[in-house]
């Protein structure tokens, strides 16, 4: 992982906080700046909130208040529940959040995946959704992770997790066609050994490289993917293929299909290093237009060979700006709410209501309109943890935990 100096990190945090406070303006007028900051890497403390905004999941959640809780309380289809439960322990088993069987990480993962099967019963559950949901849960609460997963499945990668895997097969052919432009040597080698794209790129794309790359590279790829769309996954795939099979010397070491598959399963660590990979992704000239043009060509070829697609997916959205343009949010839906509210027992004089003061009480009102009343006569010294003060601190913390947004990030 690349070390970012603390001073630089604090500056980036301040810039991201400013952007999140005026998200609609930044996305409409300064989208290139947002894209540039995603390419530099979103600060870890704000990554969860940034992903929520980039994907449009914040708006989706606001428009469907109570929906996740409703799905969470339903038992779920036993067929999917059984499969999901068997998959839980396979997701990042060495991560402290998912290491314990039945721990809070696995519980939240189950809740998110089960809720999705109820949200999209015609689609159900696909095993590749589990690592995607697990990555999201490392950065945000279950409800937020659910809505981001919904956006990824419906907007970024529509049809990927449906039965038949037609969408991923189409994208495999698109990747193969684009490879001819990026590396003729690699393309010729794969064609010679008749190595179908679906054999090596399925896990890459369906898991958004979360099971392929080192962790620091995964996060940087996701920052760009959730900002710019699926073209980032294509670029990562093309960079890997070019680096591993891009010269005659490299292809000499793998004389057949089996050897080539083994090589692509064990990608050289130097090509997956965060700094190198990100730079290669940014510089690779593959655009949304290139992908859509090739998509149409592959669709025509698919119809000639297989007939119409069985799964009719909605059109793919190429990143955050396309999603926001398609469904313009209101300012209210983008408004940030404080996640943890701690009432100070030492309110300023301006917060004291005269009649309450006369009765020996102090009243403060927070942003959500909730009012907390404190007895002023018992607060003598703020440094003295008197029983009364301890009681109020506990009461305040309980109130904060029941707030709408429960993440603890900046």
3D structure, described in words:
Strands 1-2 form a two-stranded antiparallel sheet. Helix 9 (129-137) crosses helix 10 and helix 11 crosses helix 12 (184-192). Helices cover 60% and strands 2% of the residues. The model is unreliable at 347-410 (pLDDT under 50). It is globular, with a radius of gyration of 25 Å. With 410 residues, the protein is mostly helical. It is built from 24 helices and two strands.
| Secondary-structure-derived class | mainly alpha
How would you write the strand order of the largest sheet?
A: 1-2
Computed Rg: 25 Å
User: Total helix count?
Assistant: 24
Task: Summarize model confidence as the mean pLDDT.
Answer: 84
Number of strands: 2
| Helix and strand sequence | HHHHHHHHHHHHHHHHHHHHHHHEEH
- Rounded to the nearest angstrom, the distance between the terminal CA atoms is 22 Å
> Hey, roughly how much beta strand do the residues contain?
under 5%
Shape: globular
Main beta-sheet annotation: 2 strands, antiparallel
Give unreliable regions as ranges.
347-410
Helix share bin: 55-70%
Summarize the topology.
Blueprint lengths: L5 H16 L1 H7 L1 H10 L6 H8 L2 H7 L3 H6 L5 H10 L16 H16 L9 H9 L4 H15 L9 H17 L1 H9 L4 H10 L8 H14 L2 H15 L2 H5 L4 H9 L3 H4 L1 H10 L4 H19 L13 H7 L4 H4 L19 H5 L2 E5 L5 E5 L11 H15 L9
Protein name: Rab-GAP TBC domain-containing protein
InterPro entries: Rab-GAP-TBC_dom, Rab-GAP_TBC_sf, Rab_GAP_TBC_domain
Pfam families: RabGAP-TBC
């Amino acid at each position: 992982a690349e070390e970012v100096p603390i001073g630089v990190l604090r500056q980036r945090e301040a810039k991201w906080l400013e952007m999140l406070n005026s998200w609609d303006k930044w996305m409409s007028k300064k989208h290139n700046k947002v894209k540039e900051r995603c390419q530099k890497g979103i600060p870890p403390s704000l990554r969860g909130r940034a992903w929520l905004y980039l994907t449009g999941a914040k708006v989706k959640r606001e428009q469907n208040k109570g929906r996740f809780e409703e799905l969470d309380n339903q038992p779920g289809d036993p067929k999917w529940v059984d499969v999901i439960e068997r998959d839980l322990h396979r997701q990042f088993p060495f991560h402290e959040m998912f290491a314990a069987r039945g721990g809070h990480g696995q519980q939240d993962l189950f809740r998110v995946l089960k809720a999705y099967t109820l949200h999209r019963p015609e689609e159900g559950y696909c095993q590749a959704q589990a690592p995607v949901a697990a990555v999201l849960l490392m950065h945000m609460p279950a409800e937020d992770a659910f809505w981001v997963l919904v956006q990824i499945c419906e907007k970024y990668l529509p049809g990927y997790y449906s039965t038949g895997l037609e969408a991923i097969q189409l994208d495999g052919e698109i990747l193969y066609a684009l490879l001819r432009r990026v590396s003729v040597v690699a393309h010729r080698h794969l064609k010679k050994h008749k190595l179908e794209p679906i054999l090596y790129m399925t896990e890459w794309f369906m898991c958004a490289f979360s099971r392929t790359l080192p962790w620091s590279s995964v996060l940087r790829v996701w920052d760009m993917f959730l900002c710019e769309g699926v073209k980032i996954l294509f670029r990562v795939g093309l960079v890997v293929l070019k680096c591993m099979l891009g010269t005659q010397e490299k292809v000499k070491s793998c004389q057949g299909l089996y050897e080539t598959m083994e090589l692509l399963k064990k990608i050289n660590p130097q090509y997956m290093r965060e700094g190198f990979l990100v730079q290669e992704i940014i510089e690779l000239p593959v655009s949304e237009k290139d992908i859509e043009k090739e998509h149409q060509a592959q669709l025509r070829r698919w119809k000639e060979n297989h007939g119409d697609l069985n799964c009719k997916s909605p059109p793919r959205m190429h990143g955050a700006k396309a999603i926001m343009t398609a469904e313009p949010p209101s300012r209210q839906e983008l408004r940030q709410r404080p996640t943890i509210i701690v009432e100070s027992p030492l309110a300023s004089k301006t917060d004291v209501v005269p009649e309450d003061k006369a009765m020996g009480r102090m009243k403060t009102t927070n942003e959500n309109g909730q009012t907390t009343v404190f007895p002023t006569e018992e607060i003598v010294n703020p440094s003295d943890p008197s029983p009364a003060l301890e009681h109020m601190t506990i009461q305040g913390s309980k109130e904060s935990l029941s707030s709408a947004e429960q993440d603890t990030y900046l």
